[in-house]
## 1
Amino acid sequence: MTTATASHDDHHHGPEKGLMRWVKTTNHKDIGTLYLWFAFSMLLIGGALAMGIRMELLQPGLQLMDPHFFNQLTTMHGLIMVFGAIMPAFVGLGNWLIPMMVGAPDMALPRMNNWSFWILPFAGGILLSTFFMEGGAPAFGWTFYAPLSTTFAPDSTDFFIFAVHLLGFSSIMGAINIIATVLNMRAPDMKLMDMPLFVWTWLITSFLLIGAMPVLAGAVTMMLTDRNFGTSFFDAAGGGDPVMFQHIFWFFGHPEVYIMILPAFGVVSHIIPTFARKPLFGYSSMVYATASIAFLSYIVWAHHMFLTGMPVAGELYFMYATMLIAVPTGVKVFNWISTMWRGSMTFETPMLWAISFVFLFTIGGFSGLMLGIAPADIQYHDTYFVVAHFHYVLVTGALWSIIAATFYWLPKWTGRMYNEGLAKVHFWWAVISVNVLFFPQHFLGLAGMPRRIPDYSLQFADFNMISSIGGFAFGASFILFTYIIVDCIRNGKPTTSRPWEGAKGLEWTLAPKADYHSFNKPPSRKLIEAESQHS
Amino acid sequence: MFIFAVVIMPPIYDVFCEITGFNGTSGRVDTEQEYAVKEDRKVDVSFFAMTMGGFPVQFNPKIKSMEVVPGKFYTTSYIAKNNTDQVVIGQAVPSVAPTDAALHFKKLECFCFNRQVFQPNEELEMTLRFVVEPELDERIQDISLSYNFFKLDK
């Protein structure tokens, strides 16, 4: 290397000093960190809204708020958790991990990466600011069905539409970046079928994002013109159709739920082999199962709409297509279990989260199958059973994997080890309270308690109180979580470059705290093979 | 996908509903064509009327239901009374249930084909002429036809 290039390298080596480092950064690790902290703060805000919901539902009757404000809470809780917490958290994990996992020095499009993050705080700010506007925040549920969101919505809905547009831009740019990184920046000696599963699941998720987010943008654009420019896409009086809104929304919405769970499958497929000290069982079947789930997610949307009036043939088609998704998902669950089979298992914190993910996500999957049965859905539709179902797949599914990933890769991010004892206390606290919170909601739903209501009949009182108490305990567990993370960053014991005995993957070949720039030279074929997930 | 959602999906959805009767979209015939009538088959057709909130016109079917023979044309009517001192313009949007019957419910003449103008305090009798096609699934014995009136500004 010549002196000129060496000094050039020096010039760019470390991060900038001060706050501007974070504003101007194009480094995938910095941007990953920004994404994760943003997602975490949104998680706390969305969680605070949920605490408000559970407080009102603690007892029957209206105690704390009027129903309109309650509706604002449920709507904003859903929107913030989906678009502000879960999705950015996965993009953050992708940013941090994908370049290290494919042996690339950075993301393929670093400046776009910076932009796609810095859109988010503004979009989130616009969304949250609607709380302080006249008429209040959007109160039509996170699914914003027309005409509730067009004819009968508050003025702040236009801000909500703009925020959704921005969030969509950000997600699409993030997805383009990940596709470009995986396909173009991958180490030359790494074949597609050598890639770790987190990379595979994110690659497939990116295609889902590029397919689905523009449809959402289309839906909110049509809402915007219906509200302000006199069109009638969703207005029956002008020849439109409100049911069409639901078709378009769920054509986005169903792929969206897989956008939020596929990267979670990837995370768990890293953690379980590590602590079972065995290669992942059925690597290629995992890849094909992920791709099948992604394809199927586009052709099942109307199972959210069994009660809108559909020909019997349509109900049957959407029912069977929905059931079909259980097959590739089952393949994954059995692969994880087979990976653990006869492994030398130890139960460090990430493994606890991963195992409870497999168990609790499967419960959520089964209640999803129950909801997918068209004739039974007539009873379940819009009840707390639905709420229990999607919280089992999104909280104990997506969020669980994010927390598992945080504990698993935190040593690599910080070079320090978290407090294992406290982390285990936090795990048991969270896993017990989350079940106290959501499991009774199954019973409430089956007994007929509708969702999105601030008041309920007396026979639902006991289960609601149990659920609320679980909710407060679960909410409080995040105080301990915050402490553990901050404590690790500040006071954690220095760790080795491979803190988990059985961990495989290129990221574990880097320094204990991964350098600001990693893999300036691509890893060799020998190294890639040695660190491969499958033997 | 954005263009697909905004420009292509809505018209395709309309055509899809017309072809399949999806979402209760009933069809239209232009002439009183001949059908192969089976006299012994009877279907009950019930009529419903609704108005969207704020529509100041009383709107009701003249008769609540009738027994029809598939393949024959029938006439009935809806009564609407404008209770205000102003001219009200409205558009009725029909829907047929069950969905599998919508495809074979055809209207020759309907007040829903055009917007309706109600003069102040006027009472209108609006006719409807329809046929249930004999191709209707044997299992269907009841059909509901409902109209929802929406207010138009102009």
## 2
Amino acid sequence: MFDIDRWNEIWNALAKNKIRSLLTAFGVFWGIFMLIVMAGAGKGLENGVSEGIARFATNSAFFWTDRTAEPYKGFKRGRYWNMEAEDLVYLRNNVPEIEYITPKNFGGRNNGGPNVIRGKKNGAFNVKGDYPDYVKIDPCTVLKGRWINEMDIRDKRKVCVIGEKVFEQMFDPKENPLGQYLKISGVYYQVVGLIKPETRININGRTEESVSIPFTTMLQTYNMGNQVHFLAITAKKGVPVTVVEEKVKEFIKKKHSIAPTDLQALNSVNIEKEFKQMSGLFLGIQILTWIVGVGTLLAGVIGVSNIMLVIIKERTKEIGVQRAIGATPRTIISQIMLESVVLTTVAGYIGLSLGVGLLELVNKVLESTAGKSDDNVFFTHPEVSLTVAISALAVLIVAGLFAGMIPATRAIKIKPIDALREE
Amino acid sequence: MIQISNLHKSYVMGSNSLHVLKGLDLDIDEGEFVSIMGSSGSGKSTLLNILGILDDYDEGSYYLGGRLMQGLNETKAAMTRNEMIGFIFQSFNLISFKNAVENVALPLYYQKVSRKKRNLIALEYLDRLGLKEWAHHLPSEMSGGQKQRVAIARALISKPKIILADEPTGALDSTTSFEVMDILKEINDQGKTVIIVTHEHDIAAMTKKIIRLKDGVIEEVIKNGELQMFKDRVRTE
């Protein structure tokens, strides 16, 4: 196995047909390279998306209203209706599986014109009425100051928490926004916090471009009565979100005289379900990656097998001589198989290294730009697990063996005399 | 050394069967120097292949050194060839990317002799054939005669009982041919059985026994004493 002659022989056989060896090796190289890059890219996408939503409470569901679609209890269809602040207490009392429940209201955007003013600066931002508990569902990092608290809600304080974009536009970079005032849709609010979202899930506009004020303050200052635009809940541990989702819908519909069969009046999105679907998507991507990658690899291996066959044809005479002077079939077979294993393994290893190298490079670039740009790039840490790399290498070696087997048995089938006669 | 009786061999080519050897009987004792002659189609190559265990036969028997050579599997045949027979070919059949020493040492490689040891032995054999200075040259850098001497060294290195030479001088000019024949004669003098297949009368005349084949059977056997007569006859022919 480790006889220098054997390696010499392998080297000679491959080096004599440099171009063909290289082209064939390229087939295998390309196969494994694509496999690694695709698997890595799939993983990167998965990492990116799951990082974007990882901190988000996956056991949550959201509700918002629409016009009714069915007449019920004397109401005609197409009725406008709203959830009400009292519904929160009502749901708390009737659906014990709820962990957190928070309302969220949306302020007007002044038809796209500026709705937030500070001195000579102004901007058009999303205004949201929030509850303290909301950050338990969609967590965010408090860069300065604090998030809305219970006292803000109780006293209907005119305070606000701003996103990074709002800060950039409304303040000088070195200014401390805390304690400063912003005029939002005609009313002044004191800035008490600067936040940065931890997830990439945005409800009614990006969090970076949003101003949050206490929910109760919003109801009062903008004359919203007791309407609730949006409801976020999380289920207690061990309770499927779907169960809570259905129950919440049932009770709200009952309270607001909406037909239980009305599918349009109360919309909801179930993050748990979405999350599962996403996992399914990733599985699909992974399967596709492997099918394409293995297919490419197979093509490469067939290429190796082909070149070995040609080499055998060219070396018939040499093999004949070797057999005449006493090389056993075993020696010849192991020689040829080793040649193909060496070719596939070396080419595969190079492909593997370059593939991993490329992923590393992409990773480096992503990391270096991650701080600067805040684009919604759902792509981080492209990587291949060691298991994938090792199994790919194992597949290569086995494939190399198989690629060598056919030409090897072919070489043995040629009788030494026929081989020697061939001029 | 070699006992062949009633040897039959036919080649099947499509639907046609070509009966090449038709009940051939042949005895060659140890230490003989024999040439096999015959026109093309007489079956001499076939006989050589069977003698060299490169091919199997259909009927009859072939004993080599007292052992029946029949239906051997490829591994056994290869091992028998390695220990019993040394081959010399018309076109030398050296391995082009190996130098002289490596070529000569090759049969020992199959006997699993260590590299260092077999190269040392190979060098010794090359020295005996006057090729010590050429030991590390590739076949492409040598003349025909030198190549054939390397091939002879390779045939001898495994200390075989028999040397089988298929037209050993076919690709050489007459001077070199005679040199090669002298070497073969020397080998024979040391007690090895040497069998040559040739169609050149003067080469055959340098051996001690000529077997003439015709149509798959032995036409005549010319022994030592009658050789002079044979030579004369060739001259008149």
